[in-house]
Amino acid sequence: MRKRASLPVVAASLLLAACSASLDSKKMSAEDSLVQVMAPELADDTSLIWAVNVGGGQYRGVDGVSYEADSGNTDGITGRIDAIEGTQDKPLYETYKMGDLTYAKAVPNGHYELTFKFAEPATTPDRRRLFSVFAEDKQVISNLDVTESREARVYSALAKTVIGVEVTDGELNIQLRGHEGTGLLNGFLVRQKQPWDTTRKLLWHDEFDGRGLATVEAPDPALWTVDVWRAHKVNDENQAYTDRSKNIRVEGGYLVLEAHQEDYQNGAYTSGRVHSASKGSLLYGRVEVRARLPKGRGSWSAIWMLPEDPFKYASNCQTGDAWQGSENCDAWPNSGEIDIMEHVANDMDNVHGTVHNRGYYGINFEQRKGSINVEGAGEEFHVYAVDWTPNALRFYVDGSLYFTYKNEGEGWLAWPYDHPYHVILNLAVGGIWGRAGGPIDNSAFPQRMEIDYVRAYGQ
Ligand SMILES: [Ca+2]
Ligand SMILES: [Ca+2]
């Protein structure tokens, strides 16, 4: 959720762990055993059907995925980028193919989930590249501009997942088609959805049923604190957060965060923000939030987590200092942030999961992230979840895995996720990201983010 910071970025090369090396998964090398010690539960991905390092050789991803070499496919032109940013899988993104590519593989009939990996070279012959990706002749990614999708940065890795691809003819077909310039692809993987583990122990939760569905009331103060903030406090967000029931209430089985356009104090919008600090936290485990997202352009909704002790890894400020929105305190990003779900309605249905830490955050667009297409995110409820172990953070929508961030084993710079975090739910209006796709649509108010439940489970 935090996008802005004034701190110098730590050289990413310091943070590369031995386990980012390309490995032959069949050989048991010293590096292999290191990977297994660090992340035993990532060693085998049983849901994996097919993965290809487009334009390159065999590669083992930090999430344990074994990518096969791109052989036997003569489509397109192979190229190389040596300055990849924004991913733990740099070698995968360093090689690509450009052109109207096609890939096909015999698979059992069924439903599949596809993750595509893109990064654009700076030397692209086209000023702008726009292309679409098709799976089983259906357009699953339309008019993609890779660089624009990573805040106008070339070299930045982009991972996009699409779900519900149905194969009925025994062969999975993937195609790229250029609209302006040619298509470009650096890698892809295909999974079958795995059953959701429902055996976890519930630590704490709120179903937002309150005293009854007919009662309108404030969020339960035993678990939640409602923030009252001025406009522009963080991220240049346009809304003030209030504790009025107009902006935040439990109603009809949901927590409702409702944004309004209205003159309020020195701002033009109001909305709701709530957090569970010192009331509901966890260290490892899983958080599941079932929510329906707002649709109006300018809205920026978020389900995310911050440390219980924001000063855990701060170097220039201490307990009691104001740190949110501060340029002078490095509590953020040092102590970390986990964004389970972010959605800006100028890019409807494109849901993001992101981690921020001192090694990887907004500056230079080094933050690690994945995105997933959630059709009807503003119409239907979906379950947004993160699964957190000492070795990895894995991000899901409706049980579909779309992003894995691995503990590189090099300490807090890239893994400050070793202390308790709490949950934050908010609906921002505008801000640097909410306004990025055009002005706030004032005809779209009020806007609502509705949360059916928040459930925190143990490991
Ligand atoms: Ca590649
Ligand atoms: Ca509910």
Structure description:
There is one protein chain. The protein is mostly beta strands. It folds into 2 domains: 47-191, Jelly Rolls (Sandwich); 202-457, Jelly Rolls. It is 6% helix and 41% strand. It has 5 helices and 31 strands. Strands 1, 2, 3, 7, 10, 13, 15, 20, 21, 23, 24, 25, 26 and 30 form a 14-stranded mixed β-sheet that branches. Strands 14, 16, 17, 18, 19, 22, 27, 28, 29 and 31 form a 10-stranded mixed β-sheet that branches. A hairpin with a 5-residue loop joins β2 (59-60) and β3. It is globular and about 60 Å long. The two termini are 25 Å apart. Bound molecules: calcium ion (2 copies). Residues 53-56, 92, 95-96, 186-187 line the site of one calcium ion. Residues 227-459 form the GH16 domain. One of its GO terms (molecular function) is hydrolase activity, hydrolyzing O-glycosyl compounds. This is Beta-glucanase. Pfam families: Glyco_hydro_16, Malectin.
The CATH architecture classification of the largest domain is Sandwich
Apparent shape: globular
CATH domain topology of the largest domain: Jelly Rolls
Q: Report the β-strand fraction as a percent range.
A: 35-45%
Gap from first CA to last CA: 25 Å
Biggest β-sheet description: 14 strands, mixed
Ligands and ions found: calcium ion
User: Fraction of residues in helices?
Assistant: under 10%
| Structural classification | mainly beta
